[in-house]
């Protein structure tokens, strides 16, 4: 595999509410509609939606459609989802989460040894950085209204085919590490990195594992992540627009070469960012 195909970002473990798979129906009506979604994917329920819920979590619809992001580590099983229509009707359905096999990446002779045998000082630094990131990517009961449309824009133009390593299980010189939380794109170093939608920068900083990073809040609990940048051209609390340059592709942090790492957290769920780049009608749909 080419050098640039590897992206290595620390997994920030934002704790989702503990949810158990179950088969009980909502009080109002027994659900007759269903949808099947693999771990890390997104389901949709279109048509005059106002409010959406997924077990104990709830959020507003986006342009009349309910979206249900499924975390890549969510336990396989059947869960209850529901929606409140603009007419006030409460409807429920069953969402079945299927297990998605973890792609194995074994990286031998990793060049940056300080990221394999990490010093106590750098471990302490990474822990402090995770404490900053976790609240940003965690589920929140109240969020700003959505300022994005689906599909979102591309994080680079042109955007090459992704490396297919979202959720990969990895080892470095034989040592197991966290799963890969984003998708890597073999974009040449020095190329512009673009915000995929309107939003507000919530973090722009240098971090040990992820290098130079930018996190953007697009409302409705959607946060996008851009890692390993050579540099960034935005600052926290800055408002950005879709397609705006936010930095430059680089190879900072735990990487083997320049590339673009693009990640997405939606309502606290770590999902394959490719699902936001496709037409929503191509997502698994409640029927």
TrEMBL record:
Residues 179-273 form the M23ase beta-sheet core domain. Transmembrane segments: none annotated. Residues 1-21 form the signal peptide. Keywords: Hydrolase, Signal. It comes from the Bacteria. One of its GO terms (molecular function) is hydrolase activity. The keyword Amino-acid biosynthesis does not apply. InterPro entries: Cell_wall_metabolism_enzyme, Dup_hybrid_motif, M23ase_b-sheet_dom. This is Murein DD-endopeptidase MepM/ murein hydrolase activator NlpD.
């Amino acid at each position: 595999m080419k050098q640039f195909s590897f992206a290595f970002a620390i997994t920030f473990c934002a704790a989702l509410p503990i949810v158990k798979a179950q088969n009980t129906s909502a009080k109002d009506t027994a659900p007759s509609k269903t949808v099947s979604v693999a771990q890390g994917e997104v389901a949709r329920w279109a048509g005059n939606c106002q409010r959406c819920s997924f077990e104990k979590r709830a959020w507003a619809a986006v342009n009349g459609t309910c979206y249900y992001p499924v975390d890549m580590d969510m336990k396989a099983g059947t869960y209850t989802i529901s929606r409140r229509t603009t007419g006030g009707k409460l409807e429920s359905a069953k969402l079945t989460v299927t297990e998605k096999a973890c792609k194995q990446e074994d990286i031998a002779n990793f060049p940056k040894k300080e990221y394999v045998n990490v010093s106590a000082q750098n471990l302490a630094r990474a822990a402090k950085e995770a404490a900053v990131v976790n609240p940003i990517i965690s589920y929140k009961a109240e969020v700003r209204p959505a300022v994005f449309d689906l599909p979102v824009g591309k994080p680079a133009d042109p955007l090459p085919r992704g490396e297919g390593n979202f959720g990969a299980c990895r080892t470095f010189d034989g040592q197991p590490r966290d799963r890969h939380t984003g998708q890597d794109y073999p974009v040449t170093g020095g190329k512009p990195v673009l915000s995929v939608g309107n939003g507000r920068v919530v973090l722009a900083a240098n971090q040990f594992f992820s290098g130079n990073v930018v996190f953007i809040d697009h409302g409705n609990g959607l946060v996008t992540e851009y890692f390993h940048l050579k540099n960034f051209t935005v600052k926290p609390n800055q408002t950005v627009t879709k397609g705006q340059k936010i930095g430059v592709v680089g190879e900072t942090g735990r990487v083997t070469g320049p590339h673009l790492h693009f990640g997405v957290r939606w309502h606290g769920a770590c999902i394959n960012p490719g699902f936001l780049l496709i037409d929503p009608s191509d997502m698994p749909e409640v029927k």
